[in-house]
Amino acid sequence: MNDYTGYLKKRILIPLSIIIFIVMMIFIAATFWHIFEGIDKETTLQMQVVETIYQGDLEADASLMRSSLNLIARDERIIEAFLQRDRVQLLNLSNTLYKQLNQQSQITHFYFTTPDRINLLRVHQPTRHSDRIERFTTLEAERSGKVSYGLELGILGTFTLRVVHPWYHQGELIGYVELGKEIDHILGKLHDALDVSLYVLIEKDHLDRQRWKEGMQMHGREASWNDYPEHIMVSSAKLYQSLPKQLEERLQNPGELRFREPVNVSIPEKRFKASFLPLEDVTQQQVGILLVLNPTEHWFESGWRILSFSAVLVLSVGGIVFILFYLLAENTENTLTATEQKLEDEYERRTDLQQEHILSLQESNQQLESTQNQLQQSNEMLAEAQHIAHIGSWNWSIHDNQVIWSDELYEIFGLEKSINTLSYEYVLQLIPNSERRYVDEVIQQALRSGEPFQIEHTIIHADGSTRFVRDQAQLSFDSDHRPISMLGTLQDITEQKQSEDITIQLAHIFDNASNQIYLLDIETLKILRTNKTATQHLGYSEAEFKQLTYSDFLESKDVGDLKQSFSALDNDTLKELRFEADHRSKDGTCRAMDIRVQRSRLAIKDIYLVIALDISERHQYQRDLQYQSLHDTLTRLPNRALLLEQLKNEISRSRRLNSCLLLLHLNINSFGEINDTLGHDQGDQLLAMLAERLKNTIREGDTIARTGGDEFALLFPEALFDDRQTVIDQLNHALLSPFEIGDFSLNVEITIGLVSYPEHGDSAEELLRHAGVALKQAKSFRSGYESYHPEFDQHSVRRLMLNSDMREAIDRKEFSLYFQPKMPSNPAHPINAEALIRWQHPEHGFISPAEFIPLAERNGYIQKITRWVLDEAASHLQRWNKNNCYLTISVNLSARNLQEAGLVQHIRDLSERWKISPEQLTFEVTETAMLNDPDYIATILDEISSMGHGISIDDFGTGYSSLSYLQRLPANELKIDTSFIQRMIEDEDSAIIVRSTRELAHNLGLAVTAEGVETEEMVEALTSLHCDRLQGYYFSRPLPADNFITWMEQHRVNV
């Protein structure tokens, strides 16, 4: 009997004690995990905040300095002093501004630099100048033409945020203006905001020791170069005087700070988490480290409080549980001991009684089990053998007509085994009618003769299908030699019969297949057998084939050693080998074949099965399709797709050889009229004849293609842009003789668009599109040929950008109004001026009105721009009126403006809103603008004129106005176009046009203004013709408003 005293106590209380201890350890581990996890999360968040504030302050400072530079760059006095290279005046103008920027924004650097990066003036250090600026920010501004900014490391190891502004004046780069400020104030801001200590460490590799020491002494700072091997500490914002010992040791060991993972450090009674932020200059090169110490002492204090409370709780609860389990275990031990004693006594009594019965039964069971096992093994082996061979056995008792089947026989017939009463007649019904009589006669003959039999016949399966069987049997006789039973077997041979049928069918398919089939010996690749298709196509007899190996008539560049290639099928990973090659027939002709090779098994050996499909016609069809897809059907020339492919190849070749190429895109003038007049058949004949002539003009290696309709493209590799005239002359010469089309003799002219690589694009698609743009441009200008110009490309990237930026240009104050004087030929008359809009784009610089005004007319933004110009001109007139300066300003109106429904009302409101006289505002309208709906335009101009505004016909002589139409307009002035004025001195025809226009205008009572006056000779000629006003660069270029007033004061003009 087991003694349970103390047993349960040990089994229960020892694990319980271990559990209490483990729980205590888990509380301790969880507490410390909480502390360090909290420290890590706080450190990560702290570093994100540090980096965000650091980067945000840099961006804010850079933005403020860009704004300051923008204002400085627009100051006309500073511009004038800079252009005059007057350092004293420039210093006087900018020194006060520098002091303000230094006090308000901590600006420490202020530079003026010429376009070639020679420093003209350091406002913060006037005595140092005339050196070349080689800093990255200045070089980047020079390269990009845009504002450049970034951090750069100074000789003292301090970071300076520098902003360099390219300085444009009247569309030209005149130099660079630069502001800079040191970033130490950002450390102070981070220190105050986050209550952390910060140290800036600079790598010595980026500093010159001697220059650094001299700089530190100049600024009265301690030059501690040897404190650390790889770094110097240039600035700090800290809570404690000393750096933790662990960090001091890291700084003393070279390479330690290259591992930037946060570390735990401490000083007496203080703990910190040290993190490292890489410091990069404007070139994104790391030059130092920002060391951040985040206090973590509060996390440990909180952890110890949690740990103390957890320990008391676990120990208290654990003690109570321990006592309860101790008492329960002791009571249970006593009960188990008494119960066990009773059970042992009863067990011994029953064991003796059962032992006697067991011995007696064991002997009987052993004998019975041995007999049953032998019988079961025999039955199982017989059933398994019958199942494997699909053979069932049967026994027919003749005297009582009962038939007994084996299990397998039920399977063969598909019947349920529950049918256990079978008769001879029942079994006969399972045989088809066509064979039933035959089977019955065989069995009856066996009964008469006493001989065994074997026959093959069919049976009807329970599912209705027919099965083939082999049936054999023999008789058993009694002592009088009378048959008493028939014992037989029946084998299902359906699969065997089907295999025989399939073999016959496969042999037929093999011989009559449309593909060539070969059976090859694996070792020698000799041909064992072929089909009729192979003998017919290759011309060898079957006997001749057996003398050949497969490689004897296989020709392929891709297949090397045939035996080695076929051996890849010898493992199970590759099931089929497929390739294309030629079969060479007996007469030497070759045909392309799609060949498949498999490894197969015959009765006694493995062979290679080769099936070859004749694909010669498919190849020819594919070649025809490919040719048709890349060539024009009518002219047999390459089409657009093939041209693009050849153009890509030539561009790649030109790029390698550093050469050029020319691409011409041309079409036939008035080809549509030829088609409409003579018919499309004659038009196609003309296209084919033109293609032949063009082919005769090009060199070997040049390409001509038909890109669609009446359009052709010619590609000239290794041709310079300067060769274009020679090429065009050759083409025109080829077209001098007329084309004989039926009964007609046609003279054909062409229009050409021309581009070159790499000047007009660096991709095939781009060059071809630009050639199309140039062709449209040539047709528009009717010039015969034109090369590509981006300003006429409605889909260029620059135009898309300008279209987008234009919508915000007014809000960003990028537009400004310039004024050009219109000088009276009579000094007693007052001066007038024309208001001209200018766009100073922040990235692209000065944008010509000739470029953005047509864009605005197409995208509909011209209305908003015109209203801005009207309001801006009226605003200037109001301001000048208050200063007793009364002027008449003319503003241009486009055709789109004149179609605007609210234009008249807006003009009507101008005088009242800005308190100006209507006579002070004149509107200039071109002849072309009036051609669209002239009656409506005349009505609009009548309304504007009735308010008191003047109307001027601009660019007169370039449009199509008739005298009668001119009489209908409420015009006060004609402006003769610049093209006539600038040619009048040397071109008599232009001079006649100018005189006739002046006489016509005066006869109609209109004033005459001549535009484009640039020389004194023009002034004298126009004055002698009594032109009322002269306008042009001879007097002044267009000027900003303030400069325009200054110009008038300097010239003491009459206003």
From TrEMBL:
The keyword Disulfide bond does not apply. The chain crosses the membrane at residues 12-36. GO terms for cellular component: membrane. Residues 502-545 form the PAS domain. Its EC number is 3.1.4.52. Residues 453-505 form the PAC domain. Residues 659-790 form the GGDEF domain. Keywords: ATP-binding, c-di-GMP, Coiled coil, Kinase, Membrane, Nucleotide-binding, Phosphoprotein, Transferase, Transmembrane, Transmembrane helix, Two-component regulatory system. The keyword Magnesium does not apply. It is found in: Membrane. Residues 329-388 form a coiled coil. It comes from the Bacteria. Residues 799-1052 form the EAL domain. GO terms for molecular function: ATP binding; cyclic-guanylate-specific phosphodiesterase activity; kinase activity. GO terms for biological process: phosphorelay signal transduction system. It holds the Pfam family dCache_3. SUPFAM superfamilies: EAL domain-like, Nucleotide cyclase, PYP-like sensor domain (PAS domain), Sensory domain-like. Its main location: membrane. This is cyclic-guanylate-specific phosphodiesterase. It comes from Solemya pervernicosa gill symbiont.
